[in-house]
Amino acid sequence: MPPESASSANPFRSLSRRRQIRDGATTGLFATFTYIVLACAVVIIGKICFDGLPVLFKAEAPFVNTEFFTKKTMTLNQFYTAEGEMVRMDNDDYLAFKESNPDAVIKDHKAFSYAGGGIVGPLVGTMMLVIVCMSAALFIGISAAVYLNEYAKKGRALNAIRLSIMNLAGVPSIVYGLFGAAFFVHSPFFPVFTHTPDLEKALFTIPLWPTDGYLSFQGWGSSVLAGGLTLAVMALPVIIAACEESLKAVPKGFREASLALGATKWQMIRTAVLPYATPGILTASVLGITRVAGETAPIMFTAAVAGKDKLPWEDAKGSGLYWLSDMMTQSVQALPYHIYVVTGKLPDDPALKDMQYGSVFVFLLLVIGFAMISVYLRARFRNKLKW
Amino acid sequence: MAKHFQRKGQRLLGLDKQSWIKGFFGSNAGLSIVVLFLICLFLMIEAFRFFPAHHELLKVNRQSGQEFVDHIIDEADGYQEFVSYTNQAYFAEYDERFEKERGIKDSWGALLGEIEDNGEDQIEVLEEARDGDDPAVLEKAEAEWKAFLAELTSEVDRAEIDSFNRLEEYPEAWNDLLKSALTYDPIEEETPAFVADAIKTQEEGMKSFTEAKTEITASGRALKDLRAKLVKITAQIAEDVELDKSAADRKAAILEGAKVLEGEAREAALAEAEKIVIRDEFPYAERVKPLSESKENHEKAAAELREKLTTGIAKLPTKFQSDKAAELVAKIRNGREPYLKNLDRSVQKASEWQFDEKVGFLQSIAKFFFGSKWVTNSSWTEVYGLGPLFTGSIMISLIALFVAVPLSIGAAIYVNRLATRREQTLIKPSIEMIQAIPSIVLGFFGIMVLGEVLQDLSQRPFLSWIPGFPIQDRLNALNAGLLLGLMAVPTIFTLCEDALNNVPRAFSEASLALGASKLQTVIRVVVPSAISGILAAVLLGLGRVIGETMVVLLVAGNRIAMPAWGDGVSIITQPTHTMTGIIAQEMPEVGAGTLHYRALFLVGLVLFSISLMINVGAQKIIKRLGHAS
């Protein structure tokens, strides 16, 4: 019997030339796609670093533009001197300059709000928002993850909880913002400690004897608390999922051994599960911070303001509890919102460039930094904890 | 040791310690249900209260005749567009064909202006001298005039006046102009022959165009006048309605104030209070009479507009030297038919308007969901229609998916199946790192860099085959879509990669054993068995893109209008607005509890529902098709 054909005779034959070319080309195409994506990211980050670095660093000691980190955001003044030289000055310098040189020639004076000074206000605001958010989200998130992983039995309740978590994860951030505005900002269910309650807004007030203040249920208004908790609600699904994962990574044997030794369930969780899940939870929290710090939409109408002369603690009145309450119910500047203000809300002008690129660069550095920490932590713990 | 076996502890409310701890953890987990419920609740509370208020607004609009006038305003706006296009086309063509003539005419005008401005005193002196009969004075005045002209013409700064620049390429004409200016007589005001010639040439050349232009401009004059008249009446009615609403309160306030006044002031206040009439119902029937009566006028004006516009457009020339003019006239010609159709419909609707006809509640709901306008910052009217925002969101999302889907699926296949180990360990975290780039940073990049780069690119001739190129606005849907595409890549990539990973090894091994090449295995075996996961990934990517706010707010251009469908695919380079963008943009400016505030919540609710549907859809896909693997 003659062979049917040469090709079917040998299954181990090498690929035909055409096939090879086609395969090679397709593989190349997929590789190109991959590298296009990476190139885009590199171009974006590179451009921002390239234009942002000169704002942050300078040639002479101490090499870092400390003013950018320590000054508050203020108006930037731009004018021409008699010699036709362009000068840009922050508002405080400008006022001092005018004071000391009353007859200086100032031509074509222009003022740009929020474009001068530094970004200490936005940095502090973002920090406060993150702290409020993470304390709430971690507390609730870890507890929820413990329940889901250690206690919950299969059933309707568990399904409902899982379904809502999954759906919460898909809700657009701006919708969280709307929710925060309606719930935390405008609704009067949330109390503040104050000496001067806003009786028109307040649901009711409780006088706090012996001080002359009140616990007034008047809502938080646009504030750190409202913004932080809105962010916490948003971060919850991410944190629950990440914590659950790290709880799952603790081997079953740990739990069984603990229970076999007579520990109660809570003792088991406390001594045999949580300590070993801590690294994972830490990673989760860092991951949560990246998410939360980068968000603008939810804080736009729950916490952020464009400009503020004082830092929150400088502005807070009263003492003790009242001081704390006042500080936490103030609106703050936040770094992402600040970027939005200086790029999206102000008319474009070359004078804004330093502030724009400087803030974006710092912001990107922070967020990418945290993201890298979380990646590093994850990799490290994964390698270290091998049971 | 025995301690550990203790089961009994203190009990509180019939539950022991362990149950309490369990309850504590459970309640925290249950919080996610509560939060989801609260989000729904608070969105709905505000959103659903929009409908009655919106219904009320539409009712008042109908009763006060605003609805009627709105039709006329729309018609007139459309007409205005024709006029503006015609004018642009006219001047484009004019400039192209008669650059020199126009330059001469305009420069002569500008030169005369200069002479008259600077030589006022001399002209007066000259005039007096001519009227008088002293030859010596006359001679001196004439000489002075000549000297003035000489000085002026030598000093004229060409760069300062635009119309002089038109003559930059025609130095002879410019010299001729200066020469004839030297002999210019301000009293005779004679136009030099070559200027008159130039004017004549261009007038003749543009004759047919001028006629068409005049006809088109004249076509809607009656409609425009009618509009101006009716707007005034309606605005007055609306104002009076507002006054009526507050009448009782104002009266009470004045009476209250009068109590503390004495003597004459008190009398005056009381008299003023007396003047305020409190009516149960606003006399709409009487007030809107002039509007009802102008229905006929309106029909007449529309018919006139129709007729003259048609003849005017027919008169437009067909051959042009300027490309821009040709393009604009084509636009006019193409736009005529739809406009006239709209006009007929609008006129009919306006004629059907009855101030006392009821506005159906369903109608007001439909008006929100299918309305093609969203107007909030005008003193004349508020219109809430989701149409332009919804189409904008969808358009940008589609662009983003168009970019992201091939890139991320390709990348996922490459990294998961084809790349080397080293590449895998490098690329995966790098793409995941893109997810960490905050959206505001991408938006910033779009506004500062990408917009300009795209615009520059689009002006290159070799790219002009791409629809929508060259791009007119730096901020547009394409720009936003590209950035959102990059943003969706990590989401789709990660989920796709997971799906590919979950394909059992046996599948690919069997395929390879049968003699398939590596790529055949991937494309024919692995990808089809992971298809459910890939589809779900694309859906979730869509969810991510449609809910994204900061990029579209900064980059999409924020123009609230339905895309001009007539332009075909090139609508992707037009600026647009989105559902997320409108909330972010307008929410900080509105007061809590207003109609506008509630409209934004309703938009939020729509977004929320869309994202829920996408999520549920993705889960369903995984469940239904997931059995394959």
Choose one word for the global shape of chain A.
flat
Query: Mean pLDDT of chain A, nearest integer?
Result: 84
What would you say the CATH architecture of the domain at 392-578 in chain B is? Orthogonal Bundle
Distance between the termini of chain A: 61 Å
Spans of chain A of at least 5 consecutive residues whose pLDDT stays below 50 are 1-7
| Largest interface by Cβ-Cβ < 8 Å | A-B, 90 and 89 residues
Q: Which runs of chain B of at least 5 residues are low in confidence (pLDDT < 50)?
A: none
The share of residues in helices of chain A is 55-70%
Number of strands of chain B: 4
Q: What's the oligomerization state?
A: heterodimer
pLDDT averaged residue by residue of chain B = 83
Shape of chain B: extended
Main sheet record of chain B: 2 strands, antiparallel
* CATH class annotation of the domain at 392-578 in chain B: Mainly Alpha
CATH fold assignment of the largest domain in chain A: MetI-like fold
Shape-level CATH architecture of the largest domain in chain A: Orthogonal Bundle
